Structure formats: C-alpha cells, structure tokens
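dumping this here before i forget
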Amino acid sequence: PGAGAAVLRVKGTRKALAVSLDGNSLYCLVNPYIGGGIAVAESVRNVTCVGARPLALTDCLNFASPERPETMWQFALCVDGIAEACEKLGIPVVSGNVSFYNETNGIGIYPTPIVGVVGLLEDIDHLMTPWFKDTDDLIVLLGETREEIGMSEYLRVIHDRERGFPPELDLERERSVVRCCREAIQAGIIKSAHDLSEGGLAIALAECSLLHPVKPRGAHVGLENPKKIRWDALLFGESQSRILVSLHEGQWDRLKQLAAVHGAPMTLLGRVGGERLTIQSDEEKPMISLPLMELEKVWKGTLPKYFEK
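structure:
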C-alpha cells in the first residue's frame, strides 16, 4: 500500500504479482497518440518501482460517440500509441475492451484510455517501496527533466488552464531508465524507488517523505538548473521516464556504473533527513521549505474536508 503498484503475494511461493492502472485524459485530449503511449509507460514504471518485471497488459478504452470523426481520430491514435509503446517495451496486450458513447447531452468525455500492467516479482525479498528509509541517504533522479508544463496538474489546479502540449515520450529512454531501476533493486543498490508522474518532482519528493508507515523522513534537495528551465516546470513539470531513488552513499559508484551501462541519465539531488521538505534552487532562498507535519495535514485532510462541504 502507498506504492504506485499493488503487490500481491502468490501463496506458497516466494513470488508476488504487481499490478498498476494508469491513464491521463488531459494528455489524450490534445495528443491521443502520446497520451496512449504514456499510459503504458507510466504503468510499466509503477510495476518496475516495486521490483517487478512487467509481463502483460490489458486496457479499457473510454471514448465519446464514435459517430463523430474527431472521436474516431482520437480512438485510432490512442490505439496506435499504446501499440507502439507495448512493442518497444516488450509487453503483449492480452485483453481489453472499448467503451463508446460516454457522453451527456451531446457533450463527450475526454478520451480516456486506461491501461493495466501486471508484473512478476520473483522473490519478495526484492520488494521495493517508495518512501525514504534512512537519514543521510542520497536522493537521485534517474531520467531527465525538461521544460514541459503543458496539460499538467500544476497548470490545471493552480492556474485553471488546460493548455499546451503534453510531455514528450522517448521510449528508448523509458526502457533504459526502467531497466536500470529494476537491476538496481535486484542488486540491492537502492533503498527506495518512486516514479514521477502527475505533479512532477516536487510532488514525488513530498510523497517519498510522507509515505513511511512509522516515521516520515524529510529531505533537503538542491536543484541545479544549467538549462535555465522555468522554476515551475522544474518543480511541477511532468517530463516522462523519470524515477526518484534513494541509496546509501557507499552505493553511489555502483548506481553510477549501472546507469552508464543502460544509458540512463542520473542526477544527485540531495539527502534524506530532518522534519522538513526543503527544495533549494541556485538562489539563497529555498523555493519550498515546509514541515512534514504541515504537508501531512494537507495530504491526509483534503479529501475528508472536501466531503464536509
């Protein structure tokens, strides 16, 4: 519980199954091809981050009336995007279904392909979790952040805008990052792994800080920005093919070598520790510096508060 994929033990064995469901209708609204591919990639990342090897995929493709040409255009491109991602990542589609005519008074839903991936964890001793473990562990980003803010949760929630283009999807890069992460888990190099998706880097850091079931651990992160990416894109952009990991400092060289073998970019972000989440930029004043208690209050209290209205 708390990870991007559910993990279910196979009774009487050392094995477990990992299952993840993913999809993003905002991406598919403006680019159904990329949106379909990203649904596959994100589900694969989630299964990978718990230590499992993706085996197969199923889907549920939800669209408005196919009698309108634009709906069939969205549908066809989503299917093509899913197919290419599955082919490049080596995952067969074993089942699926299509749901059309999802609309009210002639207004259709956003194109919403939902993808489910199941993976196999050969040995439950290699089960990985997303939360930070120990003070002074290194925090490392596998993958690369680009200036991609279009159709993001940040843009939608903070600025009330559904605009721009979704993040690009490089399937070769995706494959490199997930293979690097999975091998690092199997080799005992890393202590935690969490994929970056909606909300970007800042949200992933907050989740890793808060999810520990006993004692949440803060982090101090310093973001270098040689490409001069705008700060909100750096914090909340949703660039794909990124995984946040933590590890003991003594494992740094092993992870670096493994990343080089797979061609996966990696960046040292900071260290685990303290009772705050602090994200520092090139400037002296932190962009974010909040107590974990305050973050946890918002995180756990928002949904109950919403239903009190």
